[in-house]
């Protein structure tokens, strides 16, 4: 594994929600309010982990303010921004839940969509992939045409990797069995936005894990950290890196 992580040896829980955040002081309060309010109404034991990837605004302070009344909310503060993949990996490998979900700080997928994952978790599915493009999904507010085009193109490029039958590779709502999550994220190497492709490559091509795709409700939120001009080239380069890492035996 090529990254550090914190291993929390506390109480074992049913569900961990991991939220990577970078400069999210404006959107995070509403997200945490929605997530915590929903989870407090459930019967299972949970935790919410916010991984602040070196924010220069009040992101960490927002979490600390919520922590005054929320013992199930945890903050991991990283010294600098190392990329969404690194932040997600850090939170997942420090989680204590039997099942783990990561979701974006803008909560584009409402937290109630967790209910769609429970039957699959109980069935023993290792990796659950939220999809905005599957039959039955509901797009409340779509992305602009350019971002939709980028997403479709990126999904096609992932087929070159051998990722099959996944209609929405970069969707920021995915769930894992604890054991599968540890196996996958201890092996991942990409720190940027293409970490989703690496996760699915390991799921399908290397570890032959049980996976399922589920349609979700989704609403576009402004303020995406993906730069339309800069990041696509880096994401394509990362897909090539995945192939090279595999050829070098780094995923074995």
CATH-level-2 architecture: Alpha-Beta Complex
Helix/strand-derived category reads alpha/beta
Helix content: 25-40%
By DSSP, the count of extended strands is 9
Mean pLDDT: 90
Going by CATH, what is the homologous superfamily?
A: Spore Coat Polysaccharide Biosynthesis Protein SpsA, Chain A
- What's the helix count? 8
Distance between the termini: 11 Å
**Strand arrangement, major sheet:** 3-2-1-4-7-5-8
What does the model show?
By secondary structure, the protein is α/β, with parallel strands linked by helices. The chain has a single domain, classed as Alpha-Beta Complex (Spore Coat Polysaccharide Biosynthesis Protein SpsA, Chain A). Helix content is 37%, strand content 21%. The protein has helices spanning 28-40, 59-67, 84-93, 118-123, 145-161, 178-185, 195-206, 231-247; strands at 13-21, 46-53, 73-78, 97-103, 127-131, 138-141, 173-177, 211-215, 217-219. Helix 2 links the parallel strand 2 (46-53) and strand 3 (73-78). The longest helix is centred in the middle third of the chain and has 17 residues, at 145-161. The chain is globular. Residues 1-6 have low confidence and may be disordered.
């Amino acid at each position: 594994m090529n990254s550090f992580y914190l291993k929390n040896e506390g109480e074992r829980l049913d569900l961990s929600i991991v939220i990577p955040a970078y400069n999210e002081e404006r959107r995070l309060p509403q997200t945490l309010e929605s997530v915590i309010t929903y989870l407090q109404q459930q019967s299972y034991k949970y935790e919410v982990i916010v991984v602040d990837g070196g924010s220069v605004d009040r992101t960490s302070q927002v979490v600390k303010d919520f922590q005054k009344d929320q013992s199930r909310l945890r903050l991991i503060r990283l010294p600098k921004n190392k990329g969404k993949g690194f932040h997600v990996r850090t939170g997942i490998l420090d989680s204590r839940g039997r099942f783990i979900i990561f979701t974006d700080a803008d909560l584009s997928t409402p937290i109630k969509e967790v209910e769609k994952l429970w039957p699959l978790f109980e069935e023993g599915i290792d990796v659950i992939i939220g999809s905005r493009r599957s039959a039955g999904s509901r797009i409340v507010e779509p992305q602009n045409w350019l971002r939709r085009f980028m997403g479709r193109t990126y999904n096609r490029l992932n087929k070159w990797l051998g990722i099959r039958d996944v209609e929405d590779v970069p969707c920021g709502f995915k769930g894992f069995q604890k054991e599968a999550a540890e196996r996958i994220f201890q092996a991942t190497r990409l720190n940027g936005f293409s970490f989703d492709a690496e996760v699915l490559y390991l799921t399908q091509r290397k570890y032959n894990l049980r996976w399922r795709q589920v349609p979700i409700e989704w609403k576009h939120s402004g303020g995406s950290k993906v730069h339309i001009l800069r990041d696509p080239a880096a994401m394509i380069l990362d897909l090539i890196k995945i192939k090279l890492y595999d050829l070098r035996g780094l995923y074995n």
